[in-house]
Amino acid sequence: MKRLLTLLALPVLALGFSSCASQVKAKQSVSYQFRDGQTAKVVNGIAYAPKRAPLAVKKAIAAGNRLQNKPYKWGGGHARHNDSGYDCSGTVSYVLREAGLLKGSMPSSGYYNYGKKGEGDWITVYVRSGHVFMTVAGLRLDTGWGSDRSGPRWHTRTRPGKGHVMRHPAGL
């Protein structure tokens, strides 16, 4: 009986492995390079969208700006949309909701299946076990990594991206 159960479980395991294998993983660091008219710029912690950016991108940047200086709060942004602090997935959920690209909120693991696979033209979500962050018009919105968990902030410094799965909203 035990052998029969093991044999029956093999196709299920194979399906799980094949779906993970079809994800597009980042192979290099996530770095910001300003390109006039194509990327957002940040001045004194506030991001500015390129003029030609789609409306959803402009809304996403405005949402990210509202989160600046909020503290890191485990579970923040999930039970309450407007919270006193945000964790990584609460930050990404807030921005995507405000841009009209998500209903509700998701834990970081939910982003493995968000939108379309691969890097987006305007918005990319980077997810790995236990963490998610995003880029909007080339600018990274992250709650920090390593010992730096200051909360949602726009970042221009390079961050390791290897091993993260990349997803993006359809059309962006």
Automatic annotation (TrEMBL):
Residues 1-21 form the signal peptide. It comes from the Bacteria. Pfam families: NLPC_P60. Residues 152-172 have a biased composition (Basic residues). Residues 54-172 form the NlpC/P60 domain. Residues 148-172 are annotated as: Disordered. Keywords: Hydrolase, Protease, Signal, Thiol protease. InterPro entries: NLP_P60_dom (IPR000064), Papain-like_cys_pep_sf (IPR038765). Belongs to the peptidase C40 family. This is C40 family peptidase. It comes from Luteolibacter flavescens.
